[in-house]
């Protein structure tokens, strides 16, 4: 990060490096050609995903060529935040979309990427019987070279109180891990585990534990724009901007046809009155 670099607005980041490496070892820094980076971490998704929008005139699609087997090295920082909060990692480019010519030689397109462990997961089908404490099985499926994701990232596994035994019927490592989230019970006898990846590594943790963590940020939906400086003017407050919800959307509020097709109106509710000891339907 450049010395003295300051954050300018909520969401401001500095793209330090975006580098594409082909399967043959050729690489090119495309930081200057990057228009936007979208980076997704999902509590209910096993892998990080994202996309990269490039505008270039090198004809990389044919020069490299870009065929969907490239690696993407990313380093993105937020000014003023600690270095360990930066986004750094190597990802696998698997798809190109939305390619448009914007000039005689220039083109804009979107490259989609995913964690390299997802590619390992796609190419492994595991058949066998597994039995042990659930948390120990999870560690194996994340790091093992034979039956796991072969990950070298940090792994955070909350200890479980129970064990399990089951058959993996040609399941991928991720499917085994998601199966184990359904079987896992924590030390408080709460069965609410999730498996996900974020910039810190892989997590196998219960919602019960996440709920007890300190509140990291609170958000407000209002008409706030800027703070008053007390002299009739206003000043920008980046910290307050981070706390504001900028957009709310409800794609589908209701769908009568979907209700009919899903059987909502053909269902039957039966209740029991414990006082009169009668069923009511």
Task: Explain what the structure shows.
- The chain has 281 residues and is an alpha+beta fold.
- Helices cover 17% and strands 36% of the residues.
- It has seven helices and 16 strands.
- Helix 3 runs antiparallel to helix 4.
- It is globular.
- The N and C termini lie far apart (67 Å).
Summarize the topology.
Blueprint: E1 14-21, E2 27-29, E3 34-40, E4 49-56, H1 60-63, E5 70-77, E6 87-101, E7 107-115, H2 116-122, E8 126-133, H3 134-143, E9 155-157, E10 163-171, H4 173-183, E11 193-198, E12 201-206, H5 207-211, E13 227-228, E14 234-235, H6 238-242, H7 256-261, E15 271-273, E16 278-280
Parallel strand pairs: 9-12
Antiparallel strand pairs: 1-2, 1-5, 3-4, 4-7, 5-6, 6-7, 8-10, 11-12, 13-14, 15-16
Give a quick set of tags describing it.
281 residues, alpha+beta, 7-stranded antiparallel β-sheet, 3-stranded mixed β-sheet, 16 strands, 17% helix
The proportion of residues forming helix, as a percent range, comes to 10-25%
Counting DSSP E segments of at least 2 residues, the number of strands comes to 16
Number of helices: 7
Structural class: alpha+beta
Rg, alpha carbons: 25 Å
Q: N-to-C SSE series?
A: EEEEHEEEHEHEEHEEHEEHHEE
Q: First CA to last CA: what distance?
A: 67 Å
Beta-strand content bin: 35-45%
Give the integer mean of the pLDDT values. Answer: 88
The biggest sheet amounts to: 7 strands, antiparallel
Shape: globular
Uncertain runs: none
The largest sheet has its strands arranged as: 2-1-5-6-7-4-3
Summed up:
With 281 residues, this protein is an alpha+beta fold.
